[in-house]
Amino acid sequence: MLDIRNLRVSFPDRRGGQREVLHGIDLSLAKGETLGIVGESGSGKSVLALAVIGLLPRTARAEGEILLDGENLLALPERRLTRLRGAKIGMIFQEPMTALNPAMTAGSQIAEALRLHRPISRAEARLEALRLMDMVRIRDAKARINSYPHELSGGERQRVGIAIALALKPRLLIADEPTTALDVTVQAEILDIIDDLVAELGVGLILISHDIGVIARMSDRVLVMHDGEKMEEGGTEDVLRHPAHDYTKTLLASLPRRVRAGLEGGS
Ligand SMILES: Nc1ncnc2c1ncn2[C@@H]1O[C@H](COP(=O)(O)OP(=O)(O)OP(=O)(O)O)[C@@H](O)[C@H]1O
After folding, report:
1. pLDDT surpasses 70 at 266
2. What is the pLDDT of residues 51-84, one digit of tens each?
3. Is 226 touching ligand 1 by the criterion CB < 6 Å?
4. Could you tell me whether strands 61-68 and 71-72 are parallel, antiparallel, or unpaired per DSSP bridges?
5. What ipTM is given for this predicted complex?
6. Can you point out the beta strands (E) in the chain?
7. Which residue owns the Cα nearest ligand 1 atom 14?
8. All domains of the chain, ordered by start, with CATH?
């Protein structure tokens, strides 16, 4: 479904040159599969996600190919990309408060996402928003639909973010550190929701995290990044049990011993 070939991204540097931050990444993702991308801060995880969804800053230069269902996103005109982005790719951001519009109720934001791509009536959009809010397990959705983001808890806001990402039944979902900003107890609930929805809807998921524990729990395959390069890629269990690269070993070693033992035991 998604095939990335030799993706290079660079930004202008202060001396008038270019600084390359992704040095030729290859990856592929099948329908319904979850690929975890792990790597330390600055390794290029977010730049990779933004390139796929077409939201790199204008100053960025991207080369290579990002093929979604055979269509190269890097070669598409802006308008076509905007349409495709909403229809085929959903994005879940790290900080739901900044991703949501503070001046609009949860329900209207979900409804707006729906109406942007499909000609449906206000009443239909509201009903569909309610259904999506139930799907992401927002308790008492009928009341919450009229709440503004600041009236919701962090976990509820992230659920609204997931509902928006799913509004258009995307083929591919990208979640960039979706639980980093949340309380640990809420983190597990949000991961469960994402996991269940991905299985139920058969969407492909790219899950970005600096937390190898989160990746281990959620991903079929894992890609380890360091300094804009792919260090290794493989089945999650294989990579965790037999890390090929020193950097992956360091990542694993940074986990508490008990967590590490659990991962290496394959649980
Ligand atoms: N708009 C930008 N302009 C210039 N350089 C940028 C820009 N965005 C990112 N970079 C650079 O690209 C590199 C990769 O950054 P990126 O945000 O992808 O890392 P990351 O792995 O997602 O880190 P984190 O886990 O901290 O979010 C970094 O060196 C960063 O400084």
Report:
1. no
2. 998 889 999 999 999 999 999 999 988 888 877 7
3. no
4. antiparallel
5. 0.96
6. 2-12, 18-29, 34-39, 61-68, 71-72, 89-92, 172-176, 204-209, 221-226, 229-235
7. 44
8. 2-95+174-264 (3.40.50.300)
